[in-house]
Amino acid sequence: MPRLILIAFSLLLFPLGMKGQEGEPPRATANAFFGGGGAFAEGNRAGVLQFGGGGQGRIYKGLGAGAEIGYVHPTESFGDGFGLFSTNGFYHFWTGRSSQKVVPFLTGGYSLAFRDGHANLGNFGGGVDYWFRDRAALRLEVRDHVWPSRNGVPTSHFLMFRVGVVGR
Fold first, then answer.
1. For the residues 114-141, what does the mean pLDDT come to?
2. Residue 74: DSSP 8-state
């Protein structure tokens, strides 16, 4: 656990020295995150942790696409986790004001869980980016990865609250 905290803290410091143009929405961003939450399935639940990173590119106004990769594991056992790759669409609610510091967003897409085999999941979520510097933001996000059963009813959820940094 101390090693995970050290890695996350190092990732938080990476974009702090970047400078750029104020007020215009970024064309592309990179992010790093860590978080915690729960795995829920058929009345059972367990605590889980996640860390990872990725990037996004804006296509038109606030609309864009991105990808990320991370690792999800039970709170009790780092070694019992699995990799999670996601490709998503997103919408950032930019107002066009150069002074806008808080930018809400929504996201959703496809996730691939992998370890010894693989599983197809969907995901959705939202949050806010707080731009405390021209090229660096704090991200607060809630994301739910849903593993549907064979009949299409979601039976497993990996619900996470994530904290991260964004750099452009």
1. 95
2. E
What is the per-residue pLDDT across 25-84, written as a single tens digit (0 to 9) for each?
Answer: 788 999 999 999 999 988 889 999 999 999 999 999 899 999 999 999 999 999 999 999
Q: How many domains does the chain have?
A: 1
Per DSSP, helices labelled H in the chain are: 2-13
CATH of the domain at 101: 2.40.160.20
Amino acid at 165: V
Q: Rounded to a whole number, what is the distance in angstroms from the first to the last CA of the chain?
A: 29
Name the band, by pLDDT with cuts 50, 70 and 90, for residue 152: low
Dihedral sign (CA 101, 35, 26, 57):
negative
Inter-residue contact 160 to 35 (CB < 8 Å): yes
pTM over 0.85: no
User: Do 53 and 30 touch, CB atoms closer than 8 A?
Assistant: yes
Is the per-residue pLDDT at 23 higher than 60? no
The residues near 48 (Cβ < 8 Å, ≥ 6 apart) are 36, 37, 38, 39, 72, 73, 74, 75, 158, 160
- Token pair recorded at residue 27: 């064309």
Range of the domain at 9: 2-18+25-167
Per the listing, tokens 């104020």 go with 22
